[in-house]
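Sample intake sheet
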Amino acid sequence: VRSYRAAQLATRNHQRRWLDIGAVPTPPEAMIIGAPKCGTTSLIRCLSDHPAVWAHPRKELHFFDNHWSWGSSWFASQFPVFRQGSGIVRMEATPNYLQLPECPERVKQTAPNCRLIILLRDPVQRALSWFHHMQRQEGLRGEAAEVIAQEMRELEAMGKDELGRMGWRAPNCLEGSLYQLSLPRWQKSVPARQLLVVCLEDLIAHPGRSMGRIHDFLGLPARK
């Protein structure tokens, strides 16, 4: 109850007139599900500026991985409900979801109509960016070339089935860049019309065109 009330209080002034205070909580219309170090923080911030977007004020709810045992009602209570016709899209961003093999079916079960944005970048650049992130945040030691080479040897020693079941394992530099393992799991569980893959390099080089694709995918009206 407190989470739901907090979500309602987090709405902006122009959205409050559309609040359906007594409605039963429902899952969001959209999520950004990955990948880490691919610009997800910048994207959710940019989208949250749109008047027809309600983005959860706390990035990375981690419901479908860390808090799955809390139940779908907890997840739904994180989002205010707006009356029909508001056009407001509710969303959150947890980039870890992309890589974890259990998440696609959990999302399908809990939010079957949710639209999912996957933001990717050059896999080597993502691996290096993640390496530096782990240095800063987790105290990862060693040189980038050394750490990544060791991870490569471990990956090469795995069989196809083991790779297919693989989720998150430190340091996760190369593993987090194996999009060819992660994407098919989502494509199997979620209809193609509900998935949008965007490359960070395209977003940087052609921001207007790329954001236009994202707005169209989310059904957002053009900003005046």
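Comment: Strands lie at 30-34, 53-55, 89-93, 115-120, 195-199. The longest helix spans residues 123-138.
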